[in-house]
Specification:
alpha/beta, 48% helix, 215 residues, binds adenosine monophosphate, five-stranded parallel β-sheet
Length: 215
């Protein structure tokens, strides 16, 4: 059965890092709305010009606009055996829209990666991404270049202290209600994101496989 995975968690919880590993484990595409939007900004497309200021201030872009971006992406041929959504949904209206998509094959499996605010702030202050391909630098990166493409590592524009505060506030107000929205589903799982990266991956894989065995 197709695996429709949604990763929830605050900025810095490790969604992007885990998503790359999990997508490889199950051979499903990693769909990161943040990456798609940053690429749109970089390319100077119409969408990019509309969303640039919002992204840089740490706010959320319009529900209808991002929902349409995701709806179109989920129509691509590579989502036959499922997908992993990273960064979507981020509001209850987005979650309702996703539930109503008629292209979904099988139920959503939702994984919340939990991390304390103190740890989030510590991680975001240290986070670097590649200026060329947008990949997150590995946690133990000792080099100033990307391990994937050799591009220069830079801080993310929206990881500046004031913007981070805004993103966390937005997360609590608009995204946390999703935990309640999804929390009672048998396909909802929660893992502790403060563990070593490998442990987090193992826990997610085990939890997701357990939900897939449920009837
Ligand atoms: P991320 O890389 O997931 O932290 O996303 C970076 C930024 O892109 C967010 O702070 C928002 O401005 C925007 N963004 C990404 N996904 C969404 C979404 N589902 N809804 C609204 N805005 C989004």
């Amino acid at each position: 059965m197709a695996l429709n995975l949604v990763l929830l968690g605050p900025p810095g919880a490790g969604k992007g890092t885990q998503a790359v590993r999990l997508a490889r484990t199950w051979g499903i595409p990693h769909i990161s709305t943040g990456t798609m939007l940053r690429e749109a900004v970089k390319s100077g497309s119409g969408l990019g010009r509309q969303v640039q200021t919002i992204i840089e201030s740490g706010g959320l872009i319009d529900d209808a606009m991002i929902t349409e971006v995701v709806r179109q992406r989920l129509q691509a041929a590579d989502v036959q055996s499922g997908f992993l959504l990273d960064g979507f949904p981020r509001t209850v209206p987005q979650a309702e829209a996703l539930d109503a998509f008629d292209i979904l094959k099988g139920p959503l499996v939702i994984v919340e990666i939990v991390l304390s605010e103190e740890e989030v702030l510590r991680r975001l202050a240290a986070r670097m991404i590649c200026s060329e391909c947008g990949t997150n630098a590995q946690d133990d990166a000792e080099f100033a270049t990307c391990h994937d493409c050799g591009g220069r590592l830079v801080p993310r524009a929206d990881d500046r202290e004031q913007v981070v505060k805004n993103r966390l506030e937005v997360y609590h107000r608009q995204t946390m209600p999703l935990v309640e929205y999804y929390g009672s589903r048998p396909t909802f799982c929660r893992v502790d994101g403060a563990q070593l990266v490998d442990h987090v991956t193992t826990e997610i894989v085990d939890a997701v496989e357990a939900t897939r065995r449920q009837k």
